[in-house]
Amino acid sequence: MVNVPEIFGSDVFNESVMREKLPKATFKALKKTIDNGDPLAADVANIVANAMKDWAVEKGCTHYTHWFQPMTGLTAEKLDSFIQPADGGHVIMEFSGKELVKGEPDASSFPSGGLRATFEARGYTAWDPTSYAFIKEKTLCIPTAFCSYNGEALDKKTPLLRSMEAVNRSALRVLKLFGSDATRVISNVGPEQEYFLVDREMYSHRKDLIFTGRTLFGAPAPKGQEMEDHYFGTIKTRVAAYMKDLDEQLWKLGIYAKTKHNEVAPAQHELAPIYGTTNIATDHNQLTMEIMKRTARKHGFKCLLHEKPFAGINGSGKHNNWSLATNTGVNLLEPGKTPAENAQFLLFLTAVIKAVYDYQDVLRACVATAGNDHRLGANEAPPAIISIFLGDELTGVLDAIVNGYKYEGEHVEMEIGVDVLPHFAKDTTDRNRTSPFAFTGNKFEFRSPGSKLSCAGPNTVLNTIVAKVLDDFADVLEKADNFQDALDDLIKNTIKESKAIIFNGDGYSEDWVNEAEKRGLLNLKSTPEAVPTYLAPKNVELFSKYNVYSETELRSRVDILLDEYCKTINIEALTMIDMAKKDILPAAATYIKELAQTSKLAKDCGADTSFEDDLVKRLSSLAAQTYNKLSALEEAEVKARDINDVETLANYYHDTVFVAMGELRAAADEIETLVGEKYWPYPTYGQLLFYV
Ligand code: ADP
Ligand code: MG
């Protein structure tokens, strides 16, 4: 039996460990740094570093690392041991304040999108004391931000921290007008992490899964997810053992792993933690993904975090449950009980609605990857069109406010700041599941992020766009002679202007695509279409105004995202070429030969060989077709080499290479349905999804 409270956070240098291990004055100084961002004096850093090292060594650590999140969206670490030479050929274990606070990893191999000139390869990592140090694999990990020597962010954490600061400042401005005594506003996120588990042995026979994380070929299994027997169904013993092990490891790292269950697709599961600040929840989600993968190995599984590992069944997302709260414990997206609280709630709600409306493009861009393109707008929820689901009741309330009529649902007149909001239940209808951005009672659930994505990007965007609108609101309200009237007008007018973004219907339907177009909403279907919108003048202005991304930083990110898209499709295309040539066509040929020989022998016996003959013909024709499609894909790949501009190349990969891949797959998948099982070179969908 594990004692959860006892193991929880046992591998974390958290506040109670700090209190225990640090002299009182040092603890106080460090706490001030953590809470208020005050700089840490060198002598204090030395004492903290030494205490951290003693604690880590006691727990068996030999190394430390500055743990950071480069723009690849993964995490990176370079390990250093604590050893220092001492007299007589001995060593002592040492760790200085300088080593704690700043590191200099050789950064030249991380993508910088041209930010770091090659002659200045060294970026540096700087300790983020707001995220606790922890032990992983006998290494003391120090969460850090990663910057160039000019101070440009080379990572995902720095912009996120900047955006948290921005939304804090803007929200406080607004709250002050309501007489709030809050001194800090924090953005929170609870990311729901979806994943697939497949048998490791089977996985090891699939080049596509190994090289690209998704299946590039594969005919559908006789059974898919149509029986709806997996979702919330009994968890298989082997999977349950994995989940238990995973929970325990996450708890040791102070991660609030809370909910686990099967998901809609066979072999698909979900883990949700209790929410935390966007910075720490992001760190924790990165760790969760890493530990999911490592633990899978231990249990003979492979954990697939790809957004669409299998065609024809659901892909995996990372639902980003986002809200704002004060340091006095008020959730600013929680409808209140008094008229004043409600007025405040309505203002914050309106701010989010406007932010999403004004910056649909950036919200779409921040979740754009080659993998996620298989989800968004590809017959799967949510669509690529960004819209907000509020539910019928809350929408009714907003309509009543705008039009100044009675809210029919409960027959009340809603005057902002005077009336209490009519009670509205959290809408849990199925329709909301198809929405990319749903209000779920006291938070917004952004459902577009893909399972593999770092939470940093979406939350950086959410924090920044809401900061902008709140700031604009504060500009208006601070100048107002009559606060109540100004508030009333502001809410009414803002809802009027932004209400095209509100959609409570079925996001899957073709009707919605047409309706959205009529409303003037964007439908950015693919990564090459979505990513460049980051650079629209209004977006460059937004991010530079709040010092979240300078224009140069933004350009570098666009470059990296498009480059990553091209590389992903290129690797997928090359893997398909390899599999078709070396596995699929040879398997077809072997089976054809077997059938042809059988037919000949059987004919000699005077038997009816129509089965063999027909199949030989059909397979030969499909093999020829596959061969043609394969050649076309090879040709398309060769042409890609002549394109230098990354945006043109990304569009080429999308419009030409990706299409050629689809055609090759269609032909090859049909062969799979005709070839005898023992001739087939790798495990099928049926085996991967159901034989666990
Ligand atoms: P669902 O109905 O989507 O399953 P849950 O209550 O299970 O909703 O919450 C899903 C995720 O949302 C969890 O990670 C949870 O911690 C997080 N969450 C709950 N409340 C908030 C909040 N106020 N802000 C941010 N995340 C939240
Ligand atoms: Mg949910």
Provide structural commentary.
- This protein is an alpha+beta fold and 692 residues long.
- The protein folds into three domains: 4-152, Ubiquitin-like (UB roll) (Roll), CATH 3.10.20; 163-549, Creatine Kinase, Chain A, domain 2; 564-690, Four Helix Bundle (Hemerythrin (Met), subunit A), CATH 1.20.120.
- Helices cover 48% and strands 13% of the residues.
- The chain contains 22 helices and 20 strands.
- Strands 10, 11, 12, 13, 14, 15, 16, 19 and 20 form a nine-stranded mixed sheet that branches. Strands 1, 2, 3, 6, 7, 8 and 9 form a seven-stranded mixed sheet that branches. A two-stranded antiparallel sheet has the order 4-5.
- The two termini are 26 Å apart.
- The mean pLDDT is 93.
- Magnesium ion is lined by residues 192, 319, 445.
Please describe the structure with a list of short key phrases separated by commas or semicolons.
Four Helix Bundle (Hemerythrin (Met), subunit A), 692 residues, seven-stranded mixed sheet, Ubiquitin-like (UB roll), alpha+beta, binds magnesium ion, 22 helices, 20 strands, binds adenosine-5'-diphosphate, 3 domains, Creatine Kinase, Chain A, domain 2, nine-stranded mixed sheet
